Amino acid sequence: MRKLIFYLIILLVTLSCAGFKKIGTIKLCKNSVENIKGTYKNTPLSKSGFYIRTLTDVFDRNTNMFNWKKKYNREDATVKLEMIKKNLLHVEILESDSILCSKNLRVKLKNDGFLYLKEKRFMIDGIPLVFGGWSFQKSRFTVDSDNNLKIQSNYFYCNGVLILISDWKTLHYDLTFEKQ
After folding, report:
1. Of 141, 148, 116, 175, which is closest to residue 40 (Cα–Cα)?
2. Model's pTM, two decimal places?
3. Which H or E element spans position 16?
4. How do the pLDDT tens digits run along the chain, 180 residues long?
5. At CB < 8 A and 24+ separation, what contacts does 47-54 make?
6. Which superkingdom is the protein from (predicted)?
7. Whether 48 contacts 74, CB under 8 Å
8. Is there a contact between 63 and 137 (Cβ–Cβ < 8 Å)?
9. How far is CA 71 from the centre of its chain?
């Protein structure tokens, strides 16, 4: 019974974290969802964060929290997006016109005008709270008035050593990627 309560508490803590802030004058509607279609630069117009540095980090990131090996070249990669169906986004990661990764991701258009990625990118490293932790990432995006891709991504992580030294934090990223 204790184990069940412990796991339920952990589940509730992780599911309720990393919510999005109530902002947004930019709205994407069902009629303009096709505006997502295009090729975008991999690096943001504004400064990037620690965990979410590029557009490829949103759509195809390493699921190992402490794997610092770059999966793609930051400056040379581009990301091509296209809505295939109502709830399906086709993503291609390109470098010098060759396709490095091609995948279909489930998305949902919500009333706030953002497309939400259905995948939450859950990651575990080591033994959580004994020597390691877990994290997950939630992302949503829209197109601004300049046809640039505006992404809001929340990154929640919890790490610890022997439960006594543990910490959790939610990081919020608001990045804009230029359409080519």
Report:
1. 148
2. 0.74
3. helix 2-16
4. 778 667 756 665 555 554 555 555 555 555 567 788 999 998 888 776 767 788 888 887 654 444 445 666 667 889 999 999 888 999 998 888 888 889 899 999 888 888 898 876 777 777 777 787 777 788 888 888 888 999 888 888 777 777 677 777 787 888 899 998
5. 48/173, 48/175, 49/155, 49/171, 49/173, 49/175, 50/171, 51/137, 51/155, 51/157, 51/171, 51/173, 52/137, 52/153, 52/155, 52/171, 52/173, 52/175
6. Bacteria
7. no
8. no
9. 15
Q: Measured at the alpha carbon of residue 28, what is the angle toward residues 60 and 122, in degrees to the nearest 5?
A: 30
How far is it, in rounded angstroms, from Cα 150 to Cα 141?
A: 5
Contact 46, 14 (CB under 8 A): no
Complete DSSP assignment for 65-96: TT--S-SS-TTTEEEEEEEEETTEEEEEEEET
**DSSP designation for 97:** T
* 134: β partners: 124, 158
Nearest to 110 by CA among 55, 148, 160, 152: 152
For residue 30, what are the CA distances in angstroms to 122, 134, 146, 162, 176? 29, 35, 18, 49, 21
